[in-house]
Amino acid sequence: MLKACYSIRMRAAERSPELGEKHISGGERIGSKSQVEPIVKQLLKKASNHSRGDADFIQITVEKIAHDQIQYISPLEVTTVEEASIEKARSEARKILTSLGVSEHALDVAFHQLSSNQNLRGAIILNSKTGLRLDERGQKGVRVSRIDWQDADGDLNERVGEALALASKVANSPFTIAELCWSDDPDYVTGYVSNRGIGYVRITPLKRDGCESGGRVYFVSDEVELESFINYLESVPVLIRRD
Ligand code: WAQ
Ligand code: MG
Ligand code: MG
Ligand code: MG
């Protein structure tokens, strides 16, 4: 008999009457009944002592998911590119994304968004040709959820394992042309570009140490069925497994 599975999501924010809500951290996991408690602890720990600030609001949501809806997908291959400067790293990222069919204009929009946005909770969806933003989520963006590794993620650290799982789910959609990401955490300057053909290409440094801007951009094709794409990202449970 198949055991019940749970989606466990966390979001943490700092709230001030003057500045409103600042995004601190988020997390999304999937586990069996006996894993719920350790996962909740891990997500609480992730939300606390965060480099973006002291969370004074932490929300954890636990939801049962149907076992027969889970999709199993392989992780993208990981490679790493180290550059001598942010300019060189960004130009390498642009070169790769251009080769995948992302237009110059869409790249300008994406780099501007990630360089100027300090409070993005999810991803921005851009048409890879026109650079037009397709989701209407503002600062909330689209948060990929119901995603985890089936077993251990190998010898990856927590951050890389999470990012690789997210990127693998995103790349698996036929509407995804490519992704660009770097963290909004001030102490983490490595980002990546990814898609199903090139895999997960880590690039460092994509931003200045101490900088709190970052986020994710999903470049999509003209054929995108937006509602079904967003539903896949947010709601379809996916477990990553090495085959
Ligand atoms: N779905 C969509 N967007 C997300 C999600 C998600 N589940 N989680 C984070 N984001 C967006 C959101 O705008 C965040 O502000 C931004 O990405 C950065 O999130 O190989 O740590 O968790 O060395 O700070 C990538 C490189 C690290 C890892 C990315 O992102 C490596 C990272 P963070
Ligand atoms: Mg985080
Ligand atoms: Mg994260
Ligand atoms: Mg972050």
Give a short summary of the structure.
The chain has 243 residues and is of the alpha/beta class. The protein is 27% helix and 32% strand. The protein is globular and about 45 Å long.
Rg over alpha carbons: 17 Å
Helical residues, percent? 25-40%
Main sheet, how many strands, which sense, barrel? 6 strands, mixed
Number of helices: 5
Strand line-up in the sheet with most strands: 5-10-9-8-11-6
- Taking all residues together, what is the mean pLDDT? 96
Task: Give the overall form.
Answer: globular
| N→C terminal distance | 23 Å
Strands, count: 12
GO molecular function, one term: 6-carboxyhexanoate-CoA ligase activity
Pathway: Metabolic intermediate metabolism; pimeloyl-CoA biosynthesis; pimeloyl-CoA from pimelate: step 1/1
EC number: 6.2.1.14
Protein name: 6-carboxyhexanoate--CoA ligase
Overview of this protein structure:
By secondary structure, the protein is of the alpha/beta class. It has two domains: 5-68; 72-240, no CATH class. Helix content is 27%, strand content 32%. It is built from five helices and twelve strands. It has helices at residues 33-47, 86-99, 104-116, 158-171, 226-235; strands at 5-16, 20-32, 57-65, 71-73, 78-82, 123-127, 147-149, 176-182, 191-195, 199-204, 215-220, 238-240. It has a six-stranded mixed β-sheet, with helices on both faces. A three-stranded antiparallel β-sheet has the order 2-1-3, with helices on one face. β9 (191-195) and β10 form a beta hairpin. The site of pimeloyl-AMP (WAQ) has 25 residues, from β2, α4, β9 and β11. Residues 25-26 line the site of one magnesium ion.
